[in-house]
Amino acid sequence: MSNSSLVSYTKLSPNHSGARTHSIDRITPHCVVGQLSAESICGCFTSPSREASCNYGIGTDGRIALCVEEKNRSWCSSSNANDQRAVTIECASDTTHPYAMNNKVYQSLINLCVDICKRNGKKKLLWLGDKTKSLNYSPKSDEMVITVHRWFANKACPGDWLYSRLGDLASQVTAKLGGSSASSGTTTPTQPSTNTSFPKTPFTVQVLVSDLNIRKGAGMNYGVTGKYTGKGVFTITSVNNGWGKLKSGAGWIYLENASYVKIGSSTGASSGSTSSAFKAYTVKVTADALNIRKGAGTNYGISGTIRDKGVYTIVAESNGSGATKWGKLKSGAGWISLDYCKKL
């Protein structure tokens, strides 16, 4: 059994159980709760007294480290049974909820999962989105299943940021492997539906971002047909696994991320309702230097800085890492933390 050729740093941990007793058919990604380097992640597991380890670590710059050889069972998921069959991956993340990871880490996670699947003869990575279903599922010979630490212990791991993207992870990895997007008609590796319910269709949504992709079908594995370049209110006529079909016929948009869309109410016969439209307001910046970011969260890049303590117009709000609430600037320059603003 080989290790990934994507590894750029190796520091083997003594904390493992030796050779696995089960073939690899699971991947368990974790949040390490710290923006650590690849070297530092390995350093967390060098002492036997720690009694913990992982197979791979992904540092904040996207570099990949090997901590426990893939042939051996790591001590990572609070479950002997899971660790015997899972490749475990610790990923650099923020230290607070939702434990966001930057794009370099996420892209490396995608690439590492592709590599793990290829070397273990898998053509599909599945996210079933449910503990009981996942742990009782018997993968086919060409399937790999995602599991998470929180299913085996009272943990937030892998954090809500990554947990909400596990369907996307499965879809992107499966697409790169050239596998089918479904398994025996029972699973579709797209984003899991985390809302308990949506309004009765048709209903309205307000787009909160300036680059929301429209896809041909309900999943990341479908091609992009267009992109919204500004906020607006649109009507959803059908919902499938957290995706909404646009009344215009343009395609499907993802509904499960509150940073992307704001769910309105059922429109009934009046499908053109815009009752959920956001009302713009002004704020005065109170910080000496407030970063403007490309998206609603500290995991997005900085596009500028406000230094004049001036008054600005907010045209949309969103949740995101690093702030209680983010506001979108009318100018289109980006998003600012509203924690450092006074609403006028």
CATH top level assignment of the largest domain: Alpha Beta
- Residue ranges: pLDDT <50 for 5 or more in a row? 181-196, 269-276
> Which homologous superfamily in CATH is the superfamily of the largest domain?
Peptidoglycan recognition protein-like
Helix content: 10-25%
Counting structural domains, the number is 3
Report the count of strand segments.
Answer: 23
User: Quaternary state, please?
Assistant: single chain
Largest sheet: 7 strands, mixed
Order of helices and strands: EEEHEEEHEHEHEHHEEEEEEEEEEEEEE
Distance between the termini: 62 Å
Q: State the shape.
A: globular
Strand fraction equals 25-35%
Helix/strand-derived class?
alpha+beta
Global Rg: 21 Å
Count of discrete alpha- or pi-helical segments spanning 4 or more residues: 6
Strand order in the largest sheet? 1-5-4-7-3-9-8
CATH topology of the largest domain: Lysozyme-like
CATH architecture descriptor text of the largest domain: 3-Layer(aba) Sandwich
Mean pLDDT: 85
Can you tell me about this structure?
By secondary structure, the chain is α+β, with helices and mostly antiparallel strands. The chain folds into 3 domains: 171 residues, 3-Layer(aba) Sandwich (Lysozyme-like), CATH 3.40.80; 64 residues, SH3 Domains (SH3 type barrels); 63 residues, Roll (SH3 type barrels), CATH 2.30.30.40. The protein is 15% helix and 32% strand. It is built from 6 helices and 23 strands. It has a 7-stranded mixed beta sheet with strand order 1-5-4-7-3-9-8. Helix 3 crosses helix 6. The termini are far apart.
